[in-house]
Amino acid sequence: MDFDIKNIDLAPGGRHRIEWAEQEMPVLRGIQQQFTSDRPFAGLRISACMHVTTETANLMVSLQAGGADVVLSASNPLSTQDDVAASLVSHYEIPVYAIKGEDNETYFKHLNAALDHNPHIVMDDGADLVSTIHKSRRNLIDNMIGGTEETTTGIIRLRAMAADGALQFPMMAVNDALTKHMFDNRYGTGQSTIDGIVRATNVLVAGKNVVVAGYGWCSRGIAMRARGLGGNVIVTEIDPLKALEAVMDGYRVMPMMEAAAIGDIFVSATGDIHVFDEHHFMAMKDGALLSNSGHFDVEINKPALEKLSTNGPKRVRPFVEQYTMKHNGHRLNLLGEGRLINLAAAEGHPASVMDMSFAGQAMAAKYLIDNKDKLENRVYTIPQEVDQEIARIKLDAMGIYIDTLTAEQVAYLNSWEEGT
């Protein structure tokens, strides 16, 4: 078995952490038991490009239990948990290509190693596997059944491909499932982002001006958790509806240029480029913290930050690089190299919320198999009945039960004769 990881001797600790996470993932556990019985992926190869964490490990093991020949590569150079990678290789015999802190050359080498697996299905977190197949590995297309995508950023890329007629196989938009973006994005990103910022800096959030760029589901969660810790939250937006929602939720809303001058902690989670840019850096206070919770490290314009600084970055803490501005001597602190702060400096989302997201991934892959002769080369959402089943299983695992409609109520809702 080929693989490329940091140190195989880290495997025992990784296994303990994988098993710890599994205790918090009852939905995926139930799906794994069903997969073990039905073997829906028997004879199929799945290549995954995802954050190599304890939660992802449990998804890989579930796919393997369903008969899949699985390979995993990292979807972010700083998100890999090296002990988890070692355990997957050592204890589960799943090839992994991921090393925390790998450079870009190694990152893309690992992507291509996963594609050397000649997959029938790809599981993506940012659409790097899919875009690589379409750009430089087109020989793999004829063998593809389809793929799944985990992130808002990735789905933006996939929908652009589909709109251009470039997408050559069907993709499942797992991020669009309600049990994913309403929970993983909001509660997972909200908690883990603040966790990453605090671990990296040991800063007190209370009393600070926390500037949150965007008000999508991830940013909603970040704003909610920052306010919960006593932060004075400012939201910036380009969408008038989302901006209005942020106002109604009790946040201050203003243009980024205004927020730049008063913010203490900055977080971006938009999926777009240069959300924090040169003119913003010029206006920021001494000691400002810059962080990103969007998938790619482009939301903070790092080349501009470097250009404006005196001698480049100074590492002042393990995940903090400090830039001293030439024009006024202010020190701006970039967290986690501008990459996903919740995975660079912390452990990512808690297992209990990833349970639903990865249940969606597993069920989306099965949906591709079950419907492979019916699907077109476009982006599909998770069927509503799958979403509801995931939510039902999650509630059961939490010991929470809900009402069901009576026959009379069903009849009323399906009739048009009744009324005032």
UniProtKB/TrEMBL annotation:
Q: In which pathway does it act?
A: Amino-acid biosynthesis; L-homocysteine biosynthesis; L-homocysteine from S-adenosyl-L-homocysteine: step 1/1
Could you tell me which residue ranges the S-adenosyl-L-homocysteine hydrolase NAD binding domain spans? 185-348
Coiled coil regions, renumbered to chain: none
Q: Output a single Gene Ontology CC term carried by this record.
A: cytosol
Record-listed substrate binding positions: 53, 125, 150, 180, 184
For this protein, the record's PROSITE patterns field holds:
ADOHCYASE_1 (PS00738)
Keywords from UniProt, A to Z, are: Cytoplasm, Hydrolase, NAD, One-carbon metabolism
Principal location: cytoplasm
GO process annotations (BP): L-homocysteine biosynthetic process; one-carbon metabolic process; S-adenosylmethionine cycle
Q: Which GO terms describe its molecular function?
A: adenosylhomocysteinase activity
Q: How is the cofactor bound?
A: Binds 1 NAD(+) per subunit.
Catalytic reactions of this protein: S-adenosyl-L-homocysteine + H2O = L-homocysteine + adenosine
Q: Which CDD domains match?
A: SAHH (cd00401)
Q: Where in the cell is it found?
A: Cytoplasm
Supply the EC number(s). Answer: 3.13.2.1
> Which InterPro entries does the entry link to?
Adenosylhomocyst_ase-like_sf, Adenosylhomocysteinase-like, Ado_hCys_hydrolase_NAD-bd, NAD(P)-bd_dom_sf, S-Ado-L-homoCys_hydrolase_CS
Cofactor dependency? NAD(+)
Please tell me where NAD(+) binds in this chain. 151-153, 185, 216-221, 237, 293-295, 342, 349
Question: Function of this protein?
Answer: May play a key role in the regulation of the intracellular concentration of adenosylhomocysteine.
What PANTHER family has UniProt attached to this entry?
Answer: ADENOSYLHOMOCYSTEINASE
Q: Matching HAMAP family, A to Z?
A: AdoHcyase (MF_00563)
NCBIfam families listed in its UniProt record: ahcY, PRK05476.2-3
This protein is called: Adenosylhomocysteinase
- Gene that this polypeptide is encoded by: ahcY
